Amino acid sequence: MELGGRRGPGAAPGLAAAARKPRQEPRPGAEAGAPGAVRARRLLLGLYLVGFLDLFGVSMVVPLLSLHVKSLGASPTVAGIVGSCYGILQLFSSTVVGCWSDVVGRRSSLLVCILFSALGYLILGASTNVFLFALARVPVGIFKHTLSISRALLSDLVTEKERPLVIGQFNTASSMGFILGPMIGGYLTELDGGFYLTAVICFSVFVLNAGLIWLFPWSEVKLNSTKNGLPLDKNHALLGERHCEVREATKPRGPPVSGRTARLPWGDVVAALRGLKRLIFSEMWDIFLMRLLMGVAVMLYHSNFVLALEERFGVRPKMTGYLISYSSALGALAGFALGPILRLYKHNSRAVLLHSSALTFTLLLLYSTAHTVGVVVFSSTLLSFTTAIGRTCITDLQLTVGGAQASGTLIGMGQSVTAVARVIAPLLSGLAQEVSPCGPPSLGAALALVAIIIMSLKRPRYGGDGSDKVKSD
């Protein structure tokens, strides 16, 4: 796949194209494709439900982890080390698991990731000492990539034109789970044995998700990306001198022919990662740098939000919590606004990303210099929209430039970059806060400005003609 409207080898029509063709080309037997399109639509809705349940279960438990590890007798230093280990595991596993999903197929990788994550939360609920608590975080740190693989599957199902909207709707459904989960988890933890009960419910939610994945109508849907090669340069060299193909979800299950065949997927993963390394450092380094800078900028804004409002305006933490919930709800609703915005920009996701990043920079600067709570509420309201839209567009830009057929690998790499941002942001926040409570958001605004400059300088390669043309339907 190339930018500028040229199609890559073997480009296949997406879900919407399958739904529209009976109307565009009325002919005998055209109606036969309609039931398949309906079932494919059900698969999309099923993935939205999987995203909702995933974050619903996780958000019931995660806010309670610090309280639980403290009740086990861990010191703040030990608790911090355990939390850092989870982040480090995510950093290294995101790309590998994403590439693995490209090789073995979305269904198998989703099932494995969901079941191992469920096991981790079950062990977490049964943890009676710090060792078991740390052990429980290992399978979750390695395999908790359900949302990333689901986004990759969504990109397989739809055309480039539909991809930002569908991923935005998926993010909205997931965010709804994150809004409801903490409330239910906070209520349950006040009961006798509340943390154990919450962890078991989370385990049950993940098992339910695995059942949904197993029952999805995989045989009715053909993935877009199964026949596309990944262009690494102008000559379209392929990953590792070969196609890193996504295996068809409909491939018949059966025992491997030999031990050598069973080990083959891991050889494909290694070859794909080597090819991806060349791709990133030669063609996509600036996209991931943008993601890193904008990620750190937004995390700096959130890092001392509660403390800064208390020190600057005397706002109590309870009221700040309401403001955070309000902003989170608006961020979840941003997915519904993405469709009209993309139509306004003629589906040019690069332009949407550039303008949303510019607005994020302006709002961070406004928040850091605010003199009234009203200005803070105004900036927080708009920031919830711009950051949600920016996250969706940067993912779409990765897939547009890198090739959607390696979507699992590319999305996993993006999650690894975000994990790096999570490591860097607390350190920078602490240093900036030594200067002023406004230091972290001011530094975030500066980093956002650097990202905007990079984005503007690289405009010609992203389609500087003003139209990121999409895959032909």
TrEMBL record:
Protein name: Major facilitator superfamily (MFS) profile domain-containing protein
Cross-referenced InterPro entries: MFS, MFS_dom, MFS_trans_sf, Tet-R_TetA/multi-R_MdtG-like
Predominant location category: membrane
CC per GO annotation: membrane
Record flagged with keyword Transmembrane helix: yes
Ranges for region Disordered: 1-33
Compositional bias annotation for Low complexity: 9-19
Residues passing through the membrane, by range: 43-66, 78-101, 108-124, 166-188, 194-216, 284-303, 323-345, 357-378
PROSITE patterns: MFS
Sequence similarity: Belongs to the major facilitator superfamily.
Keyword Ribosomal protein: no
Domain spans labelled Major facilitator superfamily (MFS) profile: 43-463
Molecular function, one GO term: transmembrane transporter activity
Protein topology in the membrane: Multi-pass membrane protein
Keywords of the record: Membrane, Transmembrane, Transmembrane helix, Transport
Compartments where found: Membrane
